[in-house]
Amino acid sequence: MASRSDTELLTEHFGYPPVSLLDQIINTLNALAEKALSSIESGLLNAPPTALGFRPPKYPSSSSQPYDAVTAHRQEVESGVHALETLLFASIDRDFDLFEIVVMRNVLTVSQRDLDWVVLKHYEGLDFSEMGDGISVEGVNELRRRMQSSLRLKTMLEAEKARNEGLLKEMRRLVGGGGIKIEGEKVEEGGKGKAFGFLLKELGLQGDKETPITTTGRFGVSQLEGLRGLSRELRGVMKELGKGEEDEEEEEEKDEQKDWRRERLEYIEGATRKHLENVRGLELGENGEVKGDEEDADVVIVGGGKGKKRFVSGGDGNNGGIKEVENLEKVVEILGIETPGKGKGREEEEGDAMDES
Prior knowledge:
This protein has helices spanning 4-14, 18-46, 69-106, 112-115, 137-175, 212-222, 224-278, 319-335, 344-349, 351-356; strands spanning 299-300, 311-312. It is mostly helical and 357 residues long. It folds into three domains: 4-56 and 66-123, no CATH class; 141-177 and 195-200; 259-356, no CATH class.
């Protein structure tokens, strides 16, 4: 068999693998053999059964079935052709396997001593002596890094291009197109209703490089009216924005003051409740009422908040407890907590005092 290098050399020379030539020969022979078998089968089937010896018996037996010469003729021809096909293709495969071995060893081969001296036509003029050590891992990694950098640069450039296109589109919208024709975009004429459309109006400006100062001055004067209009529009917008910001700041300050007062009131109520529960041993409900019989209770107090109740014992109460409760009520009133029987006016009058404290 030809060596691997020998096969590669012949493949480059022919333009196709040498074994494909032998495969083509074998396939052609198989096709011819199949056509021959088809012709033989059709010829035998078209022949009359009597010509091939299929005749009905002279003395048919009454016990057996009647003899059908046509059916027997067809069955015999088909089975015979099938057997012939099997034998023929087996013989072709066996013989042409040997043919392939002989050709690959003796015909389609190049000797090893001549292999280094063979130069193909597309190798003429090439000098392989200056080649380095070949491909290395470092070289491949360097190429990969360069490729990744190129891809990142491409992505950045595409993003920059998209941003620039958006900016140019916005500028064209503001100035009204200016007669610039862009493929795939409609050009707006006249610049009516555009914020910066006045920049494109020449307004009779005719000048050249010999009088640049005059031309520039005329252009500046011609744009003053448009700039004044823009300035007026911006003043109105700034006033509206300033009002909105001031309103938001005032609302935030009010919310902060309310939150601070509410937190202070909640802290005082919580401290009072803890004192009554821990020091006096009272069991208070959700709204500050003493749980159980009100007549047996020494004292109950709720510091402030709308809808809350206040109870004082009506029987054998403890005078010391009542005084303590009254003192706590005074403290609560001084701190500005609303107590039952006092309206909102009291809380509003003492609100400033609470803020100063």
